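input
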Amino acid sequence: MASLRDIRSRIGSVKNTRQITRAMKLVAGAKLARATNAAMAARPFKDAVAVTLKRVVGTLDGGYSHSLLQAPEDAAEILMVVFATDRGLCGNFNAIVNRAAQAQFDSFVAQGKKVQLLCYGKKSRQYFLRRGYPILESVMDLDPRRYAALADELSTRLQREWLSGRWESVYMVSNEYRSVMIQEPRVEQLLPMSLPEEAQAAAEEAGPGDDYLYEPSAAAILDRLLPMSLRTRLFQCLLESQAGEQAKRMTAMDAATRNASELINRLTLEYNRARQAAITKELIEIVSGAEAL
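output
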């Protein structure tokens, strides 16, 4: 049996841990509120872009072509952009997205494709490095205040490399934020873009009989909307990933705090029993010594 000093030391250690997890839960809760508000506030803009795309596409008679809609003929590689986090202690948030990316990667390799990974977040980079997967580049130290700039940079890079004919297709792997308890992995094709799927989420909102006049032309407007849509999807993905991370961290720290409290109760009971046994032993020794005299 552990000594009373050891049990006291362990109780103090667990209390310190509980204090840390409780503080992390409160911080994650505050960050979750801000991240959720940002993600929810950005969704109407994304939906508006989809509605506008739906309406503009409906006015075209066919024959419209854009570089983002067509795969390069000579390209033979696939790029997968994986969005994870820089920090841990957020439950299975990173495990979900990394396993989804790994499954999709293995599926492409089984089809004879060559795949490269662009990892956002340290946890994604570490996961695939340990398993020997080819990482083209890693982007770390993700700051929510720079999400707009990150989305701009990534969108510009993808368009530039797409026009150079480097990639056959580009996929995005992330966690879709549904609620505090639910974040689902999502594998989405970014390039080549597809007009019907691009506006599918908002198809019901677009009036089928609406009449609009477009200046200079519907095709010219679509040329501007497609890159904007790509950038909007990336930005929304970053916002939802941040909200999901904080939700998972708050949930994980809440569970850790409750587990620490239960462990403290068990250790306190063990300490009291050990202390009672020590007192009883001393009393027996005193009585035995008195009888011997």
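quick obs: Strands lie at 77-83, 114-120, 135-139, 167-177, 183-191.
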